[in-house]
Amino acid sequence: MNDATAALIVAIISYLVGAIPFGYLIPKWCKGIDIREHGSGNPGATNVLRTMGNEWGILVLCLDLLKGLLPVWLLPMWLLPSDSPAMLHLRVLAGVAAIVGHMLPVYLQFRGGKGVATALGVVIVLGGWGTPVAVATFLITFAAWRLVALSSMLAVSAFAITQLVVLYPYPSQTWSLLGFSVAAPLLIIYRHRSNIVRLWNREEERTEIGKRSSSVKNEVPTESDEDSAA
């Protein structure tokens, strides 16, 4: 199989896998509710956690993570020899397609989440040093402030900076990964634009692990809320 055909197959399958809306399907199948009518209205892990509890939010988080990890890990190996010079670039393409699928899922009229969990799955395979730095940044920031959006944005920023430092000396070998390491964090931060406004106005809701927010559960989603998801 030539590289162009492999790239097309990887892009399509990765997008369709990334677009599977577990944040919508799990509440629908297990509790009979449309998560878009509860809490912030977002079909993401954070809204599921706040609305239904820890175990459901963690389940959705893990499934969203696998949407990024599995296509990046398995598809290129299935389509190309392990020593193919295009292997890294095909993995990056799979990661981009999976993240875009999560953000713009065809199954939900292209209204999805921010791609943080799916991106984590991608960078577990791709990220190198940037991944543990990003995870540590998220955990420290979240422990301090309990703000998922702020923690996510700082984590992806730390990932981008670390990757630039590590990869910049070798651009000819890692140009696709270098581009991904900058573009994906910028896209994720852009998807947080409504959260940035709420953070600036000190209106962003804190997430307490182990506590279900009844106020979030019963609130009517606003138009701005519907633009944000985990």
Task: Please characterize this protein's 3D structure.
It is a single chain. The protein is mostly helical and 230 residues long. It folds into two domains: 1-115, no CATH class; 127-209. The chain is built from eleven helices and no strands. It is globular, with a radius of gyration of 18 Å. It starts with a helix and ends in a 12-residue tail after the last helix. The model is unreliable at 214-229 (pLDDT under 50).
> What would you report as the Rg, rounded to the nearest angstrom?
18 Å
Total beta-strand segments? 0
In terms of DSSP E residues, the strand content is under 5%
What is the 3D shape? globular
Report the end-to-end length measured between terminal Cα atoms: 37 Å
Quaternary structure state of the chains depicted:
single chain
The helix content, as a percent range, equals 55-70%
Number of domains: 2
Poorly predicted ranges (pLDDT <50, ≥5 residues)? 214-229
Average pLDDT score: 90
